[in-house]
Write a sequence for this structure.
């Protein structure tokens, strides 16, 4: 009998707007010492599944409508809360996605890690703390004795996630639910965390349910995979089987639309190339494979040779020895100020119609570089030359004409659209400001054609941002950047917050626009696979400096710099 | 930390200077002078009195003399209406107000915080709604209604409690309750709001996932952060409580400091007026500092003495 057996679990959310079937009749199991990956996009019901099992859902609106979860022979659904509490944190522990918000900011790390022992076992505080300290060392917190008394905000993201893992494992549970434990982390940190999880599995024999949207991570860490889509399990099997011979069209699409180092497509396939969704009148959804999926894929493959625009195109942007230093701390009564060298001597050339990828881990200065190039942040020193004109030292009015030629798309499409402006207002505003088009009617016509260009329609004009999905919003941001007909766009982590299938759509959009309009991109991202897919050239950034810059193909094939090699090695690969 | 406190105290001095300037000129702008009464006082007497209190000097000199006396000798001047040093008046009435204020604070925290916690835990239930309705009434009903009601309903029926007066140890109970009631109501609402905010955070779910009991989740994980808004409110509120309340003192015949704010203004007693105003300002600054330090102790992310970057 499996350690954890989920049979026909159903969890619905009952709200005034209707009933959402968040988890809709799913079954899977977990054996002792096994790592099972649960993959799916946001809203597919992965987290709700875990929370249903542990009774962590807010009820109402959530309700477990049916099914059974047996854990070590005991039924968990409908279990007395007191008994369920004895399971939580002692026999089944959970790690949450965001180590920033999931640790209590008011309590010391050691207190939080020792707490599950104190609650579940009859031991002295000293013993609990010494065991907690031991576990902190085991998950790789250096100087654990000293650092254990820190507060969460004094830890980096990776350290916090380690503390979270220590907290979950300190009672030596039988099962660990890991909900996107590495999503918020840099690749190198992610690689270390995954290693820790595998080691602990081998050492303690803990079974892990590993929830993620990242297929690469699953391939790296899991023994078996469960793929969820719209609250249902669409396919499950061993990692090898599933990656080699996916049978469900959704899984096929998901595997194909994720750019990898080997992707040869010019335009990525999307899930829609494989999957046909039919919604019946009663709200039930049927998923079918497209009959023409094979042809669609073939066509995309044959279009793949368009790459490699000529190297001889003109230089559009030249960045020389750019430095941005921030002063922090201090103040009138404080200590002398410290200087943070966010960007410390960056030089880049970007040619017209091409894409330069800028990769690096969080805090390396990528975003600051992008903003300093656009003169959104005033550089401390160095020169930015755009189309032969030096931007440094220009007054605000003199820069204004360049704002029309250079645009930016931000990471978070939720935060970067004004929630109180309709789409029409948001798109008309820059046109009015820069006097583009002749008169109101012409501008409106342009807005409509832009919306169509990014795959939306004129029926969306009067809507507000909250009425759109994340992917649609990012399309709106692209459209807004295009309203002033720029030549150059800085894409700052503009697909990082998206599910792979939506990411593929936006990447394709960017690529089509580049083909059609001859746009030049500076593509900033921490995701090396995505950067490889979009870029002609790639620059690797570390601690405010460019450590390596080369033709994309060259750089990924023959990295020269140690740090580049380290980054590339840390990327989980799914080559079977 | 030391640097932070020093900085705040220096800042406080500037605030006091501004407060003094405003009070000084407002007092001077009042029609009449301390010796204007309905009685016919001869001009010679007035001259003599003016000279006695130093009021015949040019305005700018008066503006400088008062604070320099405070700094050099701790001398807040002499009340023109009472003929006694302002120092004496404050040192006699402040202890009374302090006892009353501490009592009010105890009531406010002892009633307000638990009500807030219960409301937050039972949010959107009838318990929550009725408690919050009571709190709303507490905020709305003024002390001059609550005080007399207590006198009629409580003091008159329970032996040992007096309707008014200040002498035996139990005399502080009713005025302190009246004075603390509004703060208790505010605290209940602030605690409820602060706690609900914290209870919606992700780390509360983490705490539940560790198998903690709901009580432990509230007390250990949520309450600390949930109390922050209340602490910020309590600083100035406590200063106001211990510096006395004219209304409560009048209703219960308590010889506290609050009466002097009003009486000094009516009597155009500018030295007493400036004295109590500056003393109140000083208390406010001190209590705000205390509440900031307490916030820093509760929330480790607030780094006292360093600006947020």
């Amino acid at each position: 009998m499996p350690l954890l057996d989920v049979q026909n679990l159903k969890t619905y959310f009952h709200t005034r707007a209707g009933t959402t079937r968040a988890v809709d009749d799913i079954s899977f199991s977990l054996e002792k010492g096994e790592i099972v990956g649960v993959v799916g996009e946001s809203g597919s019901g992965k987290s709700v599944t875990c929370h249903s099992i542990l009774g962590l859902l807010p009820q109402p609106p959530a309700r477990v409508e049916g099914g059974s979860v047996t854990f070590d022979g005991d039924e968990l659904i409908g279990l007395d809360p007191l008994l369920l509490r004895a399971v939580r944190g002692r026999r089944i522990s959970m790690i949450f996605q965001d180590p920033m918000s999931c640790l209590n900011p008011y309590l010391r790390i050691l207190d939080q890690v020792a707490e599950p022992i104190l609650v579940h076992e009859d031991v002295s505080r000293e013993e609990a703390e010494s065991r907690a300290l031991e576990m902190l060392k085991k998950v790789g917190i250096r100087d654990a004795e000293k650092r254990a008394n820190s507060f969460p905000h004094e830890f980096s993201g990776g350290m916090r996630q380690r503390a979270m893992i220590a907290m979950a494992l300190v009672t030596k549970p039988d099962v660990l639910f890991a909900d996107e434990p590495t999503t918020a982390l840099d690749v190198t940190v992610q690689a270390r965390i995954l290693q820790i999880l595998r080691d602990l599995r081998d050492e303690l024999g803990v079974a892990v349910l590993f929830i993620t949207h990242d297929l690469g991570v699953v391939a790296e860490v899991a023994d078996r995979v469960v793929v969820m889509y719209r609250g249902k399990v669409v396919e499950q099997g061993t990692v090898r089987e599933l990656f080699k011979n996916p049978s469900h069209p959704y899984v096929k699409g998901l595997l194909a639309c994720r750019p990898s180092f080997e992707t040869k497509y010019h335009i990525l396939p999307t899930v829609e190339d494989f999957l046909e969704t039919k919604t019946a009148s009663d709200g039930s959804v049927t998923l079918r494979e497209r009959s023409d999926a094979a042809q669609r894929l073939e066509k995309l493959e044959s279009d793949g040779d368009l790459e490699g625009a000529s190297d001889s195109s003109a230089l559009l942007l030249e960045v020389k020895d750019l430095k941005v230093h921030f002063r922090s701390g201090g103040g009138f009564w404080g200590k002398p100020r410290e200087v943070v060298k966010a960007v410390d001597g960056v030089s880049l050339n970007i040619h017209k119609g091409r894409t330069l990828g800028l990769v690096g881990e969080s805090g390396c200065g990528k975003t600051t570089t992008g903003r300093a190039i656009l003169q959104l942040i005033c550089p401390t020193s160095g020169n930015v030359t755009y189309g032969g004109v030096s931007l440094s030292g220009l007054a605000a009015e003199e820069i204004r004409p360049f704002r029309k030629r250079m645009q930016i798309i931000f990471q978070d499409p939720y935060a970067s659209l004004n929630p109180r402006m309709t789409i029409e207002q948001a798109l008309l505003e820059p046109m009015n400001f820069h006097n583009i088009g002749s008169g109101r009617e012409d501008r409106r016509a342009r807005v409509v054609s832009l919306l169509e260009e990014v795959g939306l329609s004129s029926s969306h004009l009067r809507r507000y941002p909250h009425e759109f999905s994340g992917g649609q919003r990012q399309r709106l941001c692209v459209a807004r950047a295009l309203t002033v007909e720029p030549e150059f766009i800085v894409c700052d982590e503009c697909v990082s917050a998206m599910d792979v299938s939506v990411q593929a759509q936006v990447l394709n959009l960017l690529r089509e626009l580049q083909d059609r309009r001859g746009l030049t991109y500076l593509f900033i991202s921490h995701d090396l696979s995505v950067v490889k897919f979009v870029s002609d050239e790639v620059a690797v950034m570390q601690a405010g400096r460019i450590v390596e810059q080369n033709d994309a193909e060259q750089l990924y094939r023959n990295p020269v710099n140690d740090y580049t090699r380290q980054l590339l090695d840390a990327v989980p690969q799914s080559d079977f | 930390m030391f640097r932070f406190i020093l900085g705040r105290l220096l800042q406080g001095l500037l605030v006091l200077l501004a407060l003094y300037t405003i009070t000084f000129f407002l007092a001077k702008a009042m029609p009449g002078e301390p010796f204007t009464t309905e009685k016919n006082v001869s001009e010679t007497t007035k001259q003599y009195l003016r000279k006695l209190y130093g009021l015949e000097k040019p305005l700018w000199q008066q503006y400088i003399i008062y604070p320099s006396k405070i700094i050099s000798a701790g001398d807040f001047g002499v009340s023109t209406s009472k003929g006694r040093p302002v120092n004496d008046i404050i040192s006699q009435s402040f202890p009374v107000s302090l006892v009353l204020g501490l009592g009010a604070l105890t009531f406010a925290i002892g009633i307000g915080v638990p009500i807030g916690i219960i409301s937050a835990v039972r949010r959107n239930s009838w318990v929550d709604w009725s408690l919050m309705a009571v709190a709303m009434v507490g905020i709305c009903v003024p002390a001059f209604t609550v005080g007399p009601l207590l006198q009629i309903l409580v003091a008159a029926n329970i032996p040992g409690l007096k309707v008014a007066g200040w002498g035996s140890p139990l005399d502080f109970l009713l005025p302190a309750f009246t004075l603390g009631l509004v703060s208790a109501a505010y605290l209940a609402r602030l605690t409820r709001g602060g706690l609900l905010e914290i209870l919606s955070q992700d780390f509360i779910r983490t705490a539940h996932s560790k198998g903690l009991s709901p009580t432990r989740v509230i007390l250990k994980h949520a309450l600390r952060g949930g109390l922050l808004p209340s602490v910020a409110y309590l600083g100035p509120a406590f200063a106001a409580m211990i510096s006395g309340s004219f209304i409560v003192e009048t209703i219960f015949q308590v010889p506290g400091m609050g009466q002097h704010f009003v009486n000094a203004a009516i009597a155009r007693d500018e030295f007493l007026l400036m004295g109590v105003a500056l003393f109140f300002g000083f208390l406010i600054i001190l209590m705000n500092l205390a509440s900031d330090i307490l916030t820093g102790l509760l929330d480790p992310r607030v780094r006292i003495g360093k600006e947020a970057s």
About this structure: Residues 31 and 161 of chain B are 43 Å apart (CA to CA). Residues 305-309 of chain B have pLDDT under 50 and may be disordered.
